[in-house]
Fold this sequence. Notes:
The chain has helices at residues 51-58, 94-107, 128-142, 157-166, 183-189, 215-232, 252-260, 280-286, 295-307, 318-333, and strands spanning 4-10, 20-21, 28-36, 39-45, 73-79, 111-115, 149-153, 170-173, 194-197, 240-243, 273-274, 312-315. By secondary structure, it is of the alpha/beta class. The protein has 2 domains: 4-58, no CATH class; 73-333, Alpha-Beta Barrel (TIM Barrel), CATH 3.20.20.20. The protein is globular. Its EC number is 2.5.1.15. Its cofactor is Mg(2+). Pathway: Cofactor biosynthesis; tetrahydrofolate biosynthesis; 7,8-dihydrofolate from 2-amino-4-hydroxy-6-hydroxymethyl-7,8-dihydropteridine diphosphate and 4-aminobenzoate: step 1/2.
Amino acid sequence: MTDYFRPLVQHGRHRPDTALPLAGGASWFTHALHLRRDAAPRVLPAAGIPADWQAALSAPRAPVAGLSMDAPRLMGILNVTPDSFSDGGLHAGPAAAIAHAETMARAGVDIVDVGGESTRPGASTIPEEEESARVAPVIERIARPGRPLVSIDTRKRAVAEAAVKAGAGFVNDVAGLTYDPGLAPFCAARALPVCIMHAQGDPATMQDAPTYGDVLLDVYDWLAARVAALEAQGIPRDRIVVDPGIGFGKTMAHNLALLEGVALFHGLGCPVLVGASRKRFIGVISGEQEPARRVPGSLAVALAAAAEGVQILRIHDVAETAAALKVWQATRQGRHDGT
């Protein structure tokens, strides 16, 4: 049976000599939860973690397209689709999309994630020509030197090619580069960083009846296998971001188990992305049916993920999340701007 080690993440300036840094960032850990499929979890000191796991959990992460990964980065969602679950097509037109990208840039976003095909539960695939026509004109206008990095949220090589030609520098694929066999070779050839997300099933069917043996370990194993496969295809680990895929083929219990245990994914040696903003489980817990009114719950999840060392937060509400992170970081460190 495979052994897994989830660091029990801690914060603050006062850390014992036995603490190990988490992914080269400000967080650290002195103990970890030892997980196996055939045994109950047990807590052990960091010194008892195997050397390869220690190295993977502790080593600083390489920058992603020039963005350092030593503190949480904000990825703002820009859906240029008429059927987004979260905004109902509010930014489907180029003018509205470009204006919203500018608003996010002013609010402090680090990455603008442009998507032209809805991946909400029950969504159908659209032709790549239509998807490219939605995203390329917007990316051409918002991808500029000195501006936030632009990522393309797509499963398709042709769309990624159009987006990169327009100025995108990062590929975010909800299918983990498994949908289109041509996408991984393209990303490898262009030395593009990629984000691989776990999903059980495709958007049309993923919420029908998702099942797992152990959701945390199953998702970890799937992502580990995908990282290894992409390395074999010429995409090095230091250009790969991993995403456990909150809400993609998961029940409420699955989502919460992944968020509770998300620090395990640092063991893959890659930056970790969490995208839970405005999702249905937040509405169920908070009692808020309208996605746009799930901001408080989304902030709670973002801060919980940041507390576990997650490097990239994929969000809708940039200004609110940026402010919450600043206050959280100041309270964690007991100071602000050196005071």
